[in-house]
Design goal:
The structure holds 2 protein chains of 2 kinds. Chain A is mainly alpha-helical. Chain A has 2 domains: 2-80; 101-335, Orthogonal Bundle (MetI-like fold). Chain A contains 14 helices and no strands. Chain A has helices at residues 2-33, 41-80, 94-101, 103-134, 140-148, 155-165, 178-185, 199-226, 229-237, 242-253, 255-270, 274-279, 289-298, 304-335. The longest helix of chain A has 40 residues, at 41-80. Chain A is globular. The two termini of chain A are 51 Å apart. By secondary structure, chain B is of the alpha+beta class. Chain B folds into 3 domains: 2-51; 55-148, no CATH class; 158-376, MetI-like fold (Orthogonal Bundle), CATH 1.10.3720.10. In chain B, 57% of the residues lie in helices and 12% in strands. Chain B has 15 helices and 9 strands. The two termini of chain B are 45 Å apart. The chains are: A mainly alpha, B alpha+beta.
């Protein structure tokens, strides 16, 4: 164990040192090769040349890693989706045909759509309401910290927390899961919640809503505070009260931020995997695309063709958001 | 001020609503924490919300066999203690039929048929008295209800740290997380500076690329990279699953966000500072190291918290790029394994889960404002 920690420490020193050395050395070499401080026509030319090369020295490592870890794999995934399980023979669109006809895949699409409809909506809604309410009380910041806290918890940790809440003991014995204890206390019948097809999806979604609400709250709270005092003052003078103020005056002014929060959570939902893996591993009709893909990556030695196909389908769902993001970012940068 | 008043003043409903929401949001974690500190025998028979009350449970004990009887004042006596073979607490009631452990109160003497009387005291000691000699080879079974006082212990933590492998995984998680947090910062900072303040063809295109890559799902990368790693492993005859491999992978997946966050921050630094430095003869490298880096510390802090939380909490990348053996299994992966193998041992799961979330919680609570600043600077990560 000590050896491992020392190894990690050395890795940091060497890794960071090597990076720093690269930047330092490459810049020094450039300065030596193209001196410009002595003046003259040559110096002007050198300076121009150096100014052309230097950005690429700064960008080099980042571009290299981005290309190897994100750009190339995205292209290669597309290619692999047209190959068989061992990526040896071209099979055309057979993987896609398989997907469309596969029950588990259809189930995943259905569940994913459910997740996409429910989780972003609930998280954004709760986040907005909580942001509004906590802004008006003196202990609002403490409340916000507590609601924001699940953001720090891993999906797996959160799954354990909630699995404990959903825990089920056969009828007659003492329930140690909070939900069943409440249900029993109210005279209901305890259930094995995560094995109830269809409804169990919602019990899994609650976990993600629990995590993401804090995120929505933080962003929307800042947006609410950004609304100009004059607008609100004018509305109050005109007689607007709490809910009216909230729905008719404040919300329309922060539509842009709501959209950003919504899409960000949508992307998180598309990739949700840990929760399903930890809670049910797709059993009892809870499969989702991201977990199905993972399953195919390793199932029976792994079927890379089908796995890549599912990855591409997830990607296709993300593309519209990606385009919208790029447009928004470009508009923002032109505004600078 | 009318406005300040209207924003801060609010009715009692407002306070109650927020209180309810806060309770709803914190109870799950709180329950886990309380449970992880409870005695494992109590944890499995009663809900954590009863942790402060005495837990009652039904148990079975057995009197010694007739061969151990002693004669006393013309009667035959078998004596012993129900807690002799483990267990503790106070006996509330007892009986000799499984359906009814509440037949007699503790301390009472009950007639259990054939003229035999049985007395069980609260401390578990019992005495069976019979006018004729006991026969047979096995002792009488005694069913009793015992109350256990609330008991809190760190035993669960001791157990998971030592035997469930959580201690080793904690070290593994640290080994993955620290380099995977620090390495991307440096690389991203240089790239961000170039994108913000240097002029070169294709800059706008590269920026769009970075923004686009922000949302590319990780899933896209996994299969090609797994193949690539395996190929490299075979080619050089080394293990495909190494810590170096996952450090660079996490660096790659973290770079878009890092570049994006840092570029936005660095682009917002005042132009005058850089221009006056340039007039003084400073090169881009000097400007970056002496001026931009120190000024960007808040943004660097924001990103490192993000990356730290993200890497620490990651499961997907760890499963793909690290092996399943003891010295490479990170906390999240270990927890998933425990959910499978020890799914009903809540004393193991609760303590393990709490150890897993402890570090991020501490980081979160102490550095929250940097995290929020980072979130507000626009965060969408693939």
């Amino acid at each position: 164990m000590e050896r491992q920690l020392i190894g990690a420490f050395l890795a940091i020193v060497i890794g960071v040192g090597a990076c720093a050395l690269y930047y330092f050395a490459s810049n020094m070499i450039l300065d030596l090769a193209l001196p410009f401080r002595k003046g003259g026509a040559r110096a002007v030319r050198n300076q121009k040349l150096a100014a052309t090369i230097r950005p690429w020295l700064f960008l080099g490592p980042a571009l290299l890693i981005l290309t190897v870890y994100l750009v190339y794999p995205a292209i290669d995934s597309l290619r692999l989706s047209f190959y068989d399980r061992a990526s040896e023979n071209f099979v055309g669109i057979r993987n896609y045909v398989w997907a469309v006809n596969d029950d588990e895949f259809r189930q995943s699409i259905f569940n994913n759509v459910l997740w996409l409809l429910v989780v972003p909506a609930l998280s954004t809604f709760f986040g907005l309401v909580i942001a509004f309410l906590t802004d008006r009380i003196w202990w609002g910041n403490i409340a916000k910290t507590l609601i924001f806290m699940p953001m720090a918890i891993s999906f797996v940790g959160a799954s354990v927390i909630w699995k404990f809440i959903y825990d089920f003991r056969s009828e007659g014995s003492t329930q140690i899961g909070l939900l069943n204890a409440i249900v029993q206390g109210l005279g209901g019948e305890p259930q094995a919640w995560i094995t109830l097809p269809f409804w169990n999806n919602f019990f899994l979604m609650i976990i993600l809503v629990w995590i993401q609400t804090g995120f929505a709250m933080v962003i929307l709270s800042a947006a609410l505070r950004g609304i100009s005092e004059e607008t609100i003052e004018a509305a109050i003078i005109d007689g607007a009260k709490g809910p009216q103020l909230f729905f008719y005056i404040m919300i329309p002014q922060i539509w842009g931020t709501i959209a950003v929060v919504w899409t960000t959570i949508t992307i998180t939902v598309l990739k949700v995997f840990d929760i399903v893996l930890a809670m049910t591993n797709g059993q009892w009709d809870t499969q989702v695309l991201a977990n199905l893909m993972f399953d195919w990556m390793f199932r029976g030695g792994g079927d890379f063709g089908r796995g890549a196909t599912i990855a591409i389908i997830i990607m296709v769902a993300v593309v519209p958001i990606m385009v919208w993001n790029i447009r928004r970012a470009n508009a923002e940068m032109e505004g600078r | 001020m009318a406005i300040a008043g209207s924003r801060k003043s609010s009715g009692i409903t407002n306070h109650v609503l927020v209180a309810i929401i806060v309770i709803l949001w914190t109870v799950p974690t709180f329950g886990l924490f309380v449970s992880s500190l409870r005695d494992k025998d109590q944890l499995s028979v009663s809900g954590w919300w009863t942790a402060l009350t005495t837990t009652e449970s039904n148990n079975t004990g057995r009197a010694p066999p007739p061969s151990e009887q002693v004669e006393r004042d013309g009667s035959f006596v078998l004596a012993g203690n129900l807690f002799a073979e483990g267990g503790s607490g106070t006996v509330v009631s007892f009986g000799t039929r499984v359906q009814n452990p509440n037949e007699f109160q503790a301390g009472q003497t009950g007639d259990i048929g054939d003229g035999v009387s049985l007395t069980v005291n609260a401390d578990g000691s019992f005495e069976m008295v019979s006018p004729v000699a006991f026969e047979g080879s096995r002792g009488q079974r005694i069913f009793y209800r015992a109350g256990m006082p609330p008991r809190f212990t760190l035993d669960n933590y001791r157990e998971v740290l030592a035997s469930a492998g959580i201690g080793q995984s904690f070290v593994n998680s640290l080994t993955v997380t620290i380099p995977a947090t620090i390495i991307p910062i440096l690389i991203a900072a240089y790239a961000a500076y170039a994108l913000a303040w240097m002029k070169f063809p294709g800059r706008a295109l590269l920026l769009s690329l970075v923004v686009g890559l922000l949302v590319v799902p990780l899933q896209m990368s996994l299969i090609p990279l797994l193949k690539l790693y395996n190929d490299i492993g075979t080619l050089f005859g080394v293990d495909a699953k190494t810590y170096v491999g996952i450090w660079i992978a996490h660096t790659g997946f973290g770079l878009p966000l890092a570049i994006y966050l840092l570029r936005n921050y660095i682009a917002g630094l005042p132009r005058e500072i850089m221009e006056s430095a340039r007039i003084d003869g400073a090169s881009d490298f000097d400007i970056f190291v002496r001026i931009v880096l120190p000024l960007s510390l808040p943004a660097l802090a924001s990103f490192s918290i993000f990356q730290f939380l993200w890497v620490w909490n990651d499961l997907r990348v760890a499963i793909v790029f690290l092996g399943a053996q003891n010295d490479q299994l990170v906390l999240t992966a270990r927890l998933v394994n425990l959910l499978g193998s020890r799914g009903s041992n809540w004393e193991i799961l609760t303590a393990s889960a709490f150890i897993t979330i402890l570090v991020p919680l501490v980081v979160f609570l102490s550095l929250q404002r940097f995290l929020i600043r980072g979130l507000l600077a626009g965060s969408v990560k693939g």
